[in-house]
Amino acid sequence: MDLTKLFELQKALDDRIIDEKGLEGQDLYRMKVMALQVELSELAQEIGDVWKFWKEPKERNRERVREELVDCLHFLLSLGIDARVDPSIPRLASIKLNLFEHKLNLFEQLEACFRDFRVAYVGIQWEMAFWHFLGLVDLLGFKWSEVEAEYLRKNGINHQRLARREG
């Protein structure tokens, strides 16, 4: 997996936001981590049947789940850019294999993302967070191509929103 294209698109979006909002030179790391955790919380709400043991399960809205995954991905990529992660990711294939060999259930995978997303500011930690994110994508029944296509769509929408504000 090579994330070069997604990193480039995210960097362009981040740069545009920073420029438009006058945030040059500010350390946005902690705010991005909080944004990522909020998006992960929104995803957790969409898959509440995994952890809301006191409630009757309801049918998941697959489209909303995919959208929330992609919202997480935007901030995860942004943190990866800040951490100067190599976008050609596969060097940690052994970690990925190890994660999937442990066969985390969906709750454990979600919990791992909450834990990892707080410390995703250096390469190896970011990569572990990313592999847990991929595990979540897999356990939720999505293919990476679906997530990537939704990311591209949402990235375009984000640029359109910025253009409307400029105009």
Automatic annotation (TrEMBL):
InterPro entries attached to this UniProt entry: dUTPase/dCTP_pyrophosphatase, UCP030140
Q: What is this protein called?
A: dUTPase
Lineage of the native species? Bacteria, Bacillati, Bacillota, Bacilli, Bacillales
UniProt organism field: Paludifilum halophilum
